[in-house]
């Protein structure tokens, strides 16, 4: 039992060495310039050692990007706390998500869009196993959402709560969820490809305008805006 505990501690320590090295490279050179060799050199190990802990480079970039999302995870909890209803929280969560993601498009792409191979949904859970302290100040009802990488599932859980309270029509949940995600992905893609013709603040407002329009269209009669 003792040896197993020691092995787990050693593995977590090695993970942190490589993740911290990757974070340093991202901050200094950008996410596109991360390589296994650079990470190994920075951490003081050879490249082969990294593959004992990470099956591919994308996973290492993912974990480093998760660490760089800390500001967002702290901010979204505060933002959602201001909402009185599930639908309020849904809008506030998207506002926070848009603000942070448009400022760090490469990081959010690495976490939520990038191809991570097999079992990508397990990676966030693994991350918080290594960095459990990052969830300490997160409300219990928000933790299941934050440890979910799949954006469809993240949004659907809040919309289901809104439907349960009669705020939106249940048969609109899937369409509304998919449309809002596609709007955000389209804008993020434009930013990553340098095809944005306006400022980030304008892009954020545009995304939220569309999201709010579709949310209003999904509201039940009693909750419709007059």
From TrEMBL:
<dbReference type="InterPro" id="IPR050624">
    <property type="entry name" value="HTH-type_Tx_Regulator"/>
</dbReference>
<dbReference type="InterPro" id="IPR001647">
    <property type="entry name" value="HTH_TetR"/>
</dbReference>
<keyword id="KW-0238">DNA-binding</keyword>
<dbReference type="Pfam" id="PF00440">
    <property type="entry name" value="TetR_N"/>
</dbReference>
<feature type="DNA-binding region" description="H-T-H motif">
    <location>
        <begin position="35"/>
        <end position="54"/>
    </location>
</feature>
<feature type="domain" description="HTH tetR-type">
    <location>
        <begin position="12"/>
        <end position="72"/>
    </location>
</feature>
<dbReference type="InterPro" id="IPR009057">
    <property type="entry name" value="Homeodomain-like_sf"/>
</dbReference>
<protein>
    <submittedName>
        <fullName>TetR/AcrR family transcriptional regulator</fullName>
    </submittedName>
</protein>
């Amino acid at each position: 039992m003792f040896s197993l505990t020691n092995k787990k501690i050693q593995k977590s320590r090695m993970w942190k060495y490589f993740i911290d090295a990757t974070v340093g490279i991202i901050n200094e050179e950008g996410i596109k310039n991360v390589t296994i060799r650079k990470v190994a050199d920075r951490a003081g190990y050879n490249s082969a050692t990294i593959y004992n802990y990470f099956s591919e480079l994308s996973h290492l970039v993912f974990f480093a990007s998760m660490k760089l999302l800390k500001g967002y995870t702290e901010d979204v909890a505060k933002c959602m706390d201001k909402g009185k209803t599930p639908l309020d929280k849904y809008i506030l969560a998207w506002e926070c998500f848009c603000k942070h993601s448009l400022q760090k498009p490469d990081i959010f792409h690495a976490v939520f869009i990038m191809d991570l191979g097999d079992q990508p949904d397990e990676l966030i859970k693994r991350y918080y196993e290594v960095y459990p302290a990052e969830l300490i100040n997160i409300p219990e009802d928000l933790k299941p959402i934050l440890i979910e990488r799949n954006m469809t599932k993240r949004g659907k859980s809040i919309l289901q709560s809104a439907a349960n309270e009669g705020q939106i029509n249940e048969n609109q949940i899937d369409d509304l969820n998919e449309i809002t995600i596609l709007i955000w992905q389209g804008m993020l893609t434009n930013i990553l490809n340098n095809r944005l013709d306006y400022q980030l603040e304008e892009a954020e407002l545009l995304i939220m305008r569309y999201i709010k329009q579709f949310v209003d269209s999904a509201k039940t009669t009693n909750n419709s805006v007059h």
